[in-house]
Design brief:
The chain is mainly α. Helices cover 61% and strands 7% of the residues. A two-stranded antiparallel sheet has the order 1-2. Helix 1 crosses helix 2. The termini are far apart.
Length: 115
């Protein structure tokens, strides 16, 4: 009995992931880069699997994509939110990188004092 519940949950999870990818693909494929309307997304989903846009789950997935920051709403259209790239290596301010910066700063100060 427990195995069938796990299988069902796994199947639902895979289905949601598939719909999520399709929504992102629908928004990405819009010509002119103006964004996709909800109608565009529905048509794209129906082209992939008939009747899937009639299920309410796709709207919940769309809302989660908006909340997570993967998509943004620009007027009545959905566009992909691209994160800004950082200059250089792209390292984050982790504890290790902060410690390395402090050590480098101390070394440059000690070099100045010696001169």
């Amino acid at each position: 009995m427990a195995a069938s519940k796990d299988d069902k949950a796994n199947k639902q999870s895979k289905e949601k992931a598939k719909v999520r990818r399709w929504i992102l693909k629908a928004v990405e494929d819009v010509e002119g880069k103006k964004g996709a309307t909800a109608h565009h997304i529905q048509k794209f989903l129906d082209s992939k699997e008939d009747g899937i846009s009639n299920k309410p789950e796709w709207k919940l997935i769309l809302k989660k994509l908006l909340d997570s920051g993967h998509l943004m709403k620009n007027g009545g259209r959905y566009v992909i939110h691209k994160s800004k790239k950082t200059a250089g290596k792209g390292t984050k301010n982790s504890a290790a990188s902060k410690a390395n910066k402090k050590v480098a700063k101390k070394q440059s100060i000690s070099v100045k004092k010696v001169r």
